[in-house]
Amino acid sequence: MLITENLGKTYNTKIRKSLFKKEKVVTEAVKGLSMEIKEGQIVGLLGVNGAGKTTTIKMLSTLLEPTNGTISIDGYDILKDTIKVKKLINMVAGGERMIYWRLTGKENLWYYGQLYNIPNDILNKRMDRLLKLVDLEKSKDVPVERYSKGMKQRLQIARGLINNPKYIFMDEPTLGLDAPIAKELREYTKKLAFEEGKAILLTSHYMHEVEELCDYLYILDEGRLITEGTTKDIALIANEERILKIELANFSKELEEAINELCDNTQSTLNLSKKEILSEITITSSKDVSSEIAAILSNNNASIRKFSLVEPKLEDAIIKLSRRNEYA
Ligand SMILES: Nc1ncnc2c1ncn2[C@@H]1O[C@H](COP(=O)(O)OP(=O)(O)O)[C@@H](O)[C@H]1O
Ligand SMILES: [Mg+2]
Q1: What is the 3-state secondary structure (H, E, C) of 262-308?
Q2: Does the domain spanning 240-309 belong to CATH 3.30.70.2750?
């Protein structure tokens, strides 16, 4: 398990105001962040630009030293047992950073493998397996500068797995990728967590991606943790109203009365549009009344064509949460 406690990072920078004047700028990029990531779990780290996501990932990846707090990975302290920790972790960054364009795909992996002192026989086997995993076997001897965007991104993943890490930190891994390539990458990510038991921390701007992949979320705003919880629970925050949409092929007076009564009792609003063939019913409620409605429909022998509960959207929840924080 990965545990951070009260993690913080302050950047001290100087900006030149004029030829002789420099101004000191102090940015508290991450403040008091405590979180946990377990094996086989994909955890999302969300927040608007400048929230502190990349800073957090850099601290977890040992690229930046925290100003306060602790990070422990499988019981090892990231600062005291750095060599042990480095064997357990790796990161996958979005875009085209961290790969050498003049080298071939295979040479890139070999180079990074050497940095980890992986014995040659193990490294050779691992490279073969990874090139197969990311579907770059055929192009392994081609210089990376001739790779497509998707191929470069897949090589990034292979690079991030070269030390067979248990913990993988992904910072916007699908940024700027075409939809089919991004989809492919999401599939790999799931495979890594659910089949290979890796623990993954993911940052992303794409809410549908987060909804698809992550089961637990930490939401940062100006460096501070504002909410954490399962993706479902957080999405529900936005949806104080649940919307049930039903289409029926027959509609009786008794049925209408029964639905009306339920709506009165549950402070729900009913919207009815009766048409010749199909009748559409929309019920908006603060509670989930779907099972009560289902019982009424069945008691009245309604012929149901459509019955759907509109799923709450994570995107709305995030907007709502950051707004709430603005006024807190
Ligand atoms: N190297 C740096 N030096 C000074 N300030 C930085 C540096 N990197 C990031 N920051 C500042 O720290 C805050 C958090 O940035 P970052 O971690 O990149 O956020 P995110 O990845 O969520 O967009 C921002 O205010 C940013 O301007
Ligand atoms: Mg970032």
Answers
A1: HHHHCCCEEEEEECCCCEEEEEEECCCCHHHHHHHHHHCCCCEEEEE
A2: yes
- Test site for ligand 1: of 15, 27, 171, most ligand atoms within 8 A of the Cβ: 27
Report the amino acid identity of residue 277. Answer: I
Q: What CA–CA distance (Å, rounded) separates 281 from 271?
A: 6
Percent of the chain scoring above 70 in pLDDT: 96
Cβ of 12 below 6 Å from ligand 1: no
Residue nearest to atom 4 of ligand 1 (CA): 11
Q: Provide the CATH number for the domain formed by 2-237 in this structure.
A: 3.40.50.300
Ligand nearest to the CA of 172: 2
180 has a pLDDT exceeding 90: no
Tokens standing for 231?
């993706």
Mutate to test the pocket of ligand 1, among 9, 55, 170 (most ligand atoms within 8 A of CB): 55
Please indicate whether residue 69, judged by its CB atom, sits closer than 6 Å to ligand 1.
no
202: left (phi over 0), alpha (psi -120 to 50) or beta: beta
Render pLDDT for 277-326 as a digit per residue (tens, 0 to 9): 788 989 888 888 888 999 999 999 888 999 998 776 787 777 777 766 65
What's the rounded mean pLDDT across residues 216-221? Answer: 93
d(CA 182, CA 189): 10
Q: How far is the CA of 46 from the centre of ligand 2 (A)?
A: 10
> How would residue 228 be classed by pLDDT, with cut points 50, 70 and 90?
very high
Q: For the beta carbon of residue 10, count every other beta carbon within 10 angstroms.
A: 15
Phi, psi (rounded to 5 degrees) for 194: -85, -25
CA separation for the pair 239, 280 (Å, rounded): 22
* 8, β-bridge pairs: 68
| Model pLDDT for residues 100-126, shown as the tens digit of each residue | 889 999 999 999 999 998 999 999 999
User: What pLDDT sits at residue 327?
Assistant: 46
- Give the residue extent of every domain in the chain: 2-237, 240-309
